[in-house]
Design a protein that fits this description.
By secondary structure, the protein is an alpha/beta fold. The protein has nine helices and eight strands. Helices cover 40% and strands 19% of the residues. It is globular, with a radius of gyration of 17 Å.
Length: 245
């Protein structure tokens, strides 16, 4: 399945169709592709869902020059949502789940004007803001002090404004969650040192919609499912049964 954006790039997605009314749209992380979501795709397929797994722009088999950290991609996901509705009908039930950058993308999508077919969201180890994540990585992974860290992050933000059309401070999952009205399941590793675990609490606090949170105690970044497969599936299945049916 694919479509062409208004800017003329073609985006690709894999689609697993079992002729159900429920569909999961799965969003992968930074510098990856839809194949990395295979474990989640099987989980949702086992739950009886159709599964749509896009390759985000400039990644995998999708065209494009620049990765938009979820902020640009949120508009692409809206297009995929309508593709699913066209495929399955107006009584479709759609769940959007993402991991890492895909988790941030899911949160950013949640604050958009969405059709009623979108029923719930799940995010796994997504960052709260793009600027906050880049600043954290500069400080904690590259041990940069406040100077020159802040000027460099601001320079990156300015370059991103030219290339991607937005400043890093504008790309906020927290701000979008403030507008979210749909049920949300937040998942994070308790030992995540890439997207710090504290960010999940910022995200969780940001939405007033029905919400649940689960921390995988010893999991690092994007390792909650591999390390705790049984508990992970149970958390997701209970959430879906409660809010999607």
């Amino acid at each position: 399945m694919d479509f062409k954006t208004d800017s003329g790039i073609t985006l690709f997605a894999q689609y697993l169709d079992q002729h159900a009314k429920k569909t999961a749209i799965l969003l992968h992380g930074f510098m990856s592709d839809g194949d990395s979501m295979a474990g989640f795709a099987k989980m949702f397929y086992d739950f009886g869902y159709n599964v749509l797994v896009p390759d985000a722009r400039a990644q995998g088999r999708s065209e494009g020059k620049y990765i938009g950290y979820g902020w640009v991609e949120k508009d692409d996901i809206l297009r995929w949502i309508y593709q699913v509705i066209d495929q399955t009908g107006t009584n479709a039930k759609i769940v959007i789940m993402g991991q890492s950058m895909g988790g941030a993308t899911a949160m950013m999508v949640s604050g958009m004007l969405l059709p009623p077919q979108v029923k719930a969201f799940i995010e796994d180890c997504g960052y709260s803001t793009v600027k906050g994540e880049i600043n954290y990585q500069a400080q904690n992974l590259f041990h940069m002090k406040a100077f020159p860290r802040f000027p460099i992050v601001d320079l990156v933000s300015g370059i991103n404004r030219v290339k991607n059309g937005f400043y890093l401070k504008d790309a906020s999952a927290v701000a979008q969650l403030n507008k979210n009205t749909r049920p949300f399941l937040f998942i994070h590793g308790g030992k995540d040192h890439f997207v710090p675990t504290k960010m999940v609490w910022q995200n969780y606090a940001a939405t007033a919609a029905p919400k649940q949170i689960w921390l995988a105690p010893l999991a690092g970044h994007a390792l909650s499912y591999p390390m705790y497969p049984k508990q992970y599936r149970q958390q997701v299945e209970r959430f879906l049964q409660k809010y999607v049916g």
